[in-house]
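Memo to structure team: turn this sequence into structure tokens by end of day. - J.P.
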Amino acid sequence: MTVPSESWVERAVDRSAAVQRSRTRIANQVRLMLDAARRLIRDKDDFTTQDLVVEAGVALQTFYRYFASKDELLLALIGDAMTEACDRWAEAAAELSDPIERLRFLITAPLERFRDDSHDAAAMRFIVGTHWHLHRIFPKELAEVEKPFVDLILAEINSAADGGLLHPRNPEWDAWLVVELLRSVNHYYAYAAKTDDDLNVTKENLWQFCRTALGVRG
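Reply from structure team:
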């Protein structure tokens, strides 16, 4: 059993009225609920708080010790999934020596989740379905949740710019706008019928659009 991302552990601990309890125990209880939520969204479009506590094997009062509402849990779930995905993408990108290739990988890798109707695809459909709902309630917190991916893109834009490989207009804004574009593409493919060939064509066109916008040389 893994420990959830530290930022969300801190949030859960700070909300707890029993902070004197073992931090490891608190982290594990939060992890039980996040993992239970992930299992539930693989099998259904929605779930109730009662479904969650039954699946996690915790009491309802344990849930409310750490989360004020189901929406807060969903925000934590998206944050946890984003942190995990960014760690995985960053590790894979680190094997590439060229910052332009790293940037291309980071921009196109998220679409791989939609191949073969995998569990990742089911999770993405759920996230897309709840994203705008959460955006209305937690706009600043949702931006914080998505910041790790923006930071990954920004780091590679800056690395390529330092090497004279591209000429961004404004790296911070460019990174944010690239991620917003990727979100729109991901939202489309979460529900649209597609084939592997469709995804390959989209990945190539997405990259060509971004490389032109970022001023990639050559």
